[in-house]
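Case study 2.
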Amino acid sequence: MLIILDEAYFEYAKDNPRYPDSMHYRYDNVITLRTFSKVYGLAGVRIGYGFAHEELIANLLKVKLPFEPSTLAQAAGIGALADKEFLHRSLELNARGVRFLTEKLRSMGFEVPPSDANFVMLPLASEQEAGRITEKLLRQGIIVRHLGAFGLPQALRISTGTDEENQLLVDSLAS
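Prediction:
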């Protein structure tokens, strides 16, 4: 049996002692996937990487498609790994954003579960309320994700942004 672990949010969650870093339990049938789309901000480049046992990788290479990431995408990935300052700034901005959104939304009476990602979840009373708030924010140019497709029709996902963007979201919800 093949086990694939998606660690797209690894950089955000790695300092949480409850987060199981898959590098500590390597098995012959485990593939760990990570991406440059989140903390590195390279979603449009479509590049990521994986870890697995050498023999498993050799078998996967036998059936993989012949297309590799573009040279530009590869250069972006290598550059991102080398830019520790950018990574540090991104993680700090995100941590500040999660703290700010969590505190402000809770002070407005919302329940906000803890987050180790680049977003907070906002559970609401109903699917209708989630839809109403989504539409209200969209009219103000603020895009949030309604989580109905993820089995949570009464919840929203609010991604962190810059300090100014986070404040705009809070102000928009308060009005």
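Residues 14 and 21 are 7 Å apart (CA to CA).
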